[in-house]
Every structure is written in structure tokens, then in C-alpha cells.
Amino acid sequence: MLTLTIAFLAALGVLSLGLGRIVLSELDNIGTKATDRLTWNLALVQISHLQVREMAYRAQGGENLHVFRLEFGIYSSRVAALRDSPKFEKLRTNQLVGEKLIRIQRQLDFFTPLVDGPDKDLVQSLPAFIDGLQRNNRDVRDLVRIGLQLEAQSSADHKHQVTLTLKSLGWVLVALVMALAFTALLIQRLFFRTYELLSAHRATAERLRVMVSSSLDAIVMVDVRGEILSFNGAAEDIFGFTKEEVVGKRLKDTLIPIHHHKFTVDNTVSFLKSGEGNLINKGPVLKEAKRKSGEVFPIELNVSSSQDGDNIVFVCFMRDVTDRIKGEEELRRARDDALAGERVKEKLLTVLSHEIRTPLNGILGSIELLENAEMLSQEQKYLRTMRASGELLLHHVNEVLEMSRLETGTEFENYEPFDLDELLQEIVDCHFFPAKARGNKIRLRCRLPGETHCVGNPERIHQVLMRLLANALKFTENGEIMIDVEHQAGKDEVEFRVCDTGEGIADEDLERIFEDFVTLDTSYSRKREGTGLGLAITRRVVEQMGGELNVESELGEGSIFWFTLSLPLVTQPQTTKAIASADVPRPIHILIVEDNDINRMLLEKLLQRQGHRVTCAVGGAEGVEAVEKERFDLVIMDISMPGMDGIEALRQIRTRRLAEGVEIVALTAHAAGDDQKRILEAGFTEILIKPATQAELARVIAAYTGQNKTINIPQENSDIQQFIEALGDEKARGYLGNFCTEVIQLKQDLSSHGQVSKEHQSEAHRLAGSAAVLGLATLRTCMQDIESAELESDPPLIALAEAWTEASEILAPHLDSSQQ
């Protein structure tokens, strides 16, 4: 503001000076000599005219001719000045003046030769000259009159201009005075403002001094030579020096370790030369400093440069980060320990998988052998109980392994078009008999637009809804369960709700039910079996699909679980169904390499029952020796064995070329994906997951011996009544009830697991044989599809639901009411 005011004052001053000079110039023009004025010159012309006429009269007697000639010359020059001088240009522009000047000049031009001639001739011409001058009298008077008029007009214009200039000068002076007054006020205000700022600056400087002195960080100021200029209290505490001990001394000689001297000097020199350095004005960096005791310790250093004229100083902010570094090291160690714990957990899960599945292999396999033998009805009941308990244990193991897989953050990428209405109907049909067994009604309310096909992950949606329905059935008796599905208007979103009228959940337990391995002591008590992982797995699956699983519940009233997924609607895709086939192998010679006695004996019995010749080897080394001595059509080898494991045994067999052209199949309880990848990369043809069933063994033998024989699957149902008559009513109904339980269990396992495993393949193969005996062709085809599916692929849940709906309608008339 002050700058603008000063500029304005300067402009006014310059303007006033200019106007003053104009006024002075005009005043000077007023005092110009008369010779420079028009009227004066015209008056001289008139006077010369009269004088030359007077002298002409006197010279008629021949006297005073020289005086006449002098006056004539003066008169002629003055007329010539009027005619030619630029000063009289304005006068000559007047037409009347021009005409009169021409007449006067003609008279002069006529007599000029006579005046310049002999005296005699001049004397004779004087009377005529006098007459001519007499005629010019009026012209000369008119010139003077016109000149006076012009002079008066010019004088009036000049006065007016001077008046305007004086007025302008007056206004400029008024503006100048006002600007000076405003400037004075502004300077006064700036003075008070400067005083206030100075006071604030002093207060700020005092606060800054207090802050610097009380700062927890060391603040050290040095000059370009590296000499310390200031040293605050925190620096004294951190470094152990007093201010008096270090001020004036070089920074590198007091606070910097010797191995950093060169870096400090080079960085300062580089900054002074180019304005750039690796440390100055680069933000905080981790460096080392030295205490008075000589101890070297880590610091966080921030160096800033400040320049006042030609003087450059460096302000160093130093923070002792010894504790932070130690804390970070402890955190790293804790992180490493946690990662090591995770690896131990994964290893533990792998070991548990093997150690639990190995005895289960023996248990379930032995039960399978016993089930094929002739036994009493009571004994069959015991076997069914044993099988159900064993398979439940296997289901719990699978849940733990699935939780481990979900924690790795694996994304679900199997997004495809599917019929949502068909999937929901299949889920309801699947739970019809379990719900009826507990006295429950199950309903489906699906509010979708005309097109029910959408894009999503049907297997995972099926898995989530199956788990939620199973959970609702577990805690609801003689009540109602409903699946409510609604499309969100204007959005590509579908909301799923599973409602039940069961026992309900207390408010304080609503979040706990989603935690790992949590079972509640009230409605979710231990009287219900389970690992406490079902809802935890379900929530993780929903989250990985981009949704969020929520719950509302009241004790004694029931619960509602709901989630929303993005499922864009599409037009119905075209689908085709393939007709499967089964393979029947011929007898071959098989080598079993297995260190577990029970498993080895079971495999031997299973294969012998299929008509194959079996040789057994205990451990990897004995298996290599057996292959070296004898030719086999197929080798089935365990992985985890003491001494030489299966992978090393395979490596030696392949390296020594002991079994050229013979497929070697791995037999293991390691179901984790990484384990299977490692086994297949080692060179095994395929992996059999324990427990291996007769059906699974038959499939592997048929697939890798090159002796397959294809048979067609019958398309019509067999006579179940004939099956009942062959086995007896009680035994057949018990078998049918057990068969229904096993199919439902497999469906639930596939839905909860979300991917086909070896266990699923084995169970599907076994159930496929039972379905064939019962004439359930569609169900058998579906089971064979599951059996032949790739490991960890998405199971055909919709097709299985359709097949089971058809099969359950066929079986319903032949089951006891308690089994329906």
C-alpha cells in the first residue's frame, strides 16, 4: 500500500512540475518582445508606408534621394517579412490579407527598378509612386485592423489556455496535498503496525528461544566453516557437552564420529559450490553421532540451510533414536518370530493332516471292507456309526485346512453366468429331508426380476448358503427356516437372508460367533458338534466375494443372517450336459510302498479284492529294491516314510531308470495345495489322498495302465424293490438310509469346502457304485463327474442338487419314516 501511495505521489509531483513549466512558458510568451508580435510588425509596416510616402514628397525636387531609397528598402523588407516569414503564416491564411499583400507587393515590384535606377528617372517617377502609395493606404490599414483582430483572438485563446493550465495545476496541487495527507496517515499506521510487529517478533523470538532451549531434540547451528554457533539445552543432555565447551569449535571434531568426517566435509563443499548436497535440505535421515564419552549412537538428523546476505548458516536438528532403533529391532524380531510361528502352524497343519488322515485311512478303509462282508443288522448299525464318526472327524480336519487356505488371501476367480433361482431351489431341496427330520419347515422366497441368470461365483454362494442353512437346522427344532433373496432395485446387487425361528443368540455373543474356534455356552453350546469354524469360514468367503456377513438375533426368537453381493443380471446362457462313462480295468501287478502296517494291509486287501496281484514294500528303500528286482504295472507309493521318503525313492527310481514306462502314483495324507504341488513337481503321476477307497484305486488303475474298457451308463432307474428283496428288507432299508446320509454329507462337504479334493473324489467314486446298483443313473453320472474333476476345482453343486432331488424322490417310498 505504501509503495502504491509513494508511486502516486511521484506521479502527481511529475505532473505538477510539467504543468508549472507550461505556466512559466506561457507567462514568458506574454512578455515576448514586441518585435515578435503580429500587431507590432503590422504597425511597423504602416509606419514605414507613411514614412516612405513622406520621403517621396520631399524627394520630388531631387533632394534627399538617398534617404528615400533607405526608407523604401525598409518598407520593402517589412512587407517581404509579412509575405514570407513563418511567424505570419496564420495571417497569410486569411484570404483578404493575401489579396492586399499581393497588391502592395505589385506596387513595390513596379517601382523597385526605378528606385534602384538613375536619380533622374527616379525623380520623374515619384509622383506616380506617391499615387500608388496613396492607393495602398487602405490596404495597409486593413492589414493592421485584421492583424489586431487576429491578435486579440489569439490573446483570448492564450489566456483561456493559461487559465485551464492553472486550474489543472491547482487540482494537481490539491490532489498532491491530499495524497501527502493520506501518506502521512498511512506512514503513521505503518509505524504503529511496525511497532506491533516488532513487539510480536520479540515475543515470537522469545517463544522460539524458549522452544529451542526446552526442545527435546538437539539443535546445533554451525557456519560454513563447520564451527558451532549455538548449542541448546537438549544438545547438552544428549551429547554430554556444555554450551561453553563446544561453541566456537568445529562440529566434526566434537559431535561427529571419525568415519563420517569425510562425508560431512564433502557434503558441505558440494552444497556451497552447487547448492545441492546429499544431506542439507533433504529431510530427516538416519546417521550416527558421538557423545562426549566417545560413545557412537544413532540419531535422526535434519539439516537446513539459512542465508542472510552473504552469510550462510546450517541448523542441525538431532534426535537420539537409540530407543526407537532398539524397539524396531525388537519389533522385527517379534515379526520374525510371528512369521516363524505361522510357518510352524502351517507345518503343524500339514503334519496333523498327515497324522490324522493316516489312521483315518485305516479306520474308514477297514469299515469299507467290513461293510462288504455279510454281517448282522446290529453289526451294520455299529459300522454305520463308526463310519459317520470317522467322516465327521475328517470333516473337522478339512475345516481347519480350509481356514488355513482362506487366511492366505486366495481370491475367488471363478465368476461365470448361472441360474440363481435354480441354485436356490437346489439348496432348499437338499435340506428338505434334514429339515423334516427335525420337524422344521423350509421355505424359499425369491424376489428376482424376470431374468434369474446372473454373473458371480455360484460354488461359493452355494457354499455360504449351505453353511448358513446347516447352522440354522442345527439350532432349530419344530420351527421354520426361510431363504429370502431380493434383487436391489436400480443396482446389480442381490441381498441374501437366512432366517430361522431357533434358539437365537445373545447380544454379547453376536460378534463372537464369527471368531475362529468359538462355540457358545448358551444356544451355541457344546452339545452340538463342531470345530467352531463354520461361521468364521463363511464370513471370510463372503468378504472375499466383496460382501459382508451380518447377523441379528434374539434369544428364544430366532436369527437372521444376511449379506449382499454384486451379481449383474445377464441373459440365459446356453448349456450342454455331457454323458459320463465308467472304466473297468483288468487284473495287473501292483507294488505298494507304505510304512504303515494298517494302511499297507488295507490297500493290499482292497486291490486283491479287485483281482489284482499285489506286492508290498515297507519304506522307500525297500520299494526301490523291489522295483529293481521285478517288473510292475503300477506303483502306489506313500510320501511320508522314515529313512527314505517317497520323493527320494521316486528320484532314485527315475535316475536309475528302474521302472521305465511305469506310472508311480503318490499316496499321502497331505492335502494342502503346496504339498500337492511339491509332490507333482517331483514327478508323481497323480496323488491319492488317504483314505483311498476301492473306487479310487480302481479309477487310478484304469487311468494309468492303458487297459481301460468303456461301458455305457444306463439311463433308466433300476428296480430298487429287487435290491431290497436280495438283501432283505431291514438290511436294505438300513443301507438306503446310510446311503442317503452319505450323499447329503458329501453335498455339505463340497458346499463348505468349495473345491473338489481327493476325499470328495474317493467318496464320489464309492457313492457312484452304490448309485449304479440302485439304478440311479443321473446321480451316478454326477458322482463320476466329481470323481474325475481336477483337484481343487469347483464342484458341480447345481448338477448334484438336481440329481439328488431326482434320486430322493425315487428312494422316498423305500425309506423308513425316521429316515426321510
Automatic annotation (TrEMBL):
Residues 204-257 form the PAS domain. Residues 351-569 form the Histidine kinase domain. Residues 589-705 form the Response regulatory domain. It is found in: Cell inner membrane. Its EC number is 2.7.13.3. PROSITE patterns: HIS_KIN, PAC, PAS, RESPONSE_REGULATORY. It comes from the Bacteria. This is histidine kinase. It comes from Parasedimentitalea denitrificans.
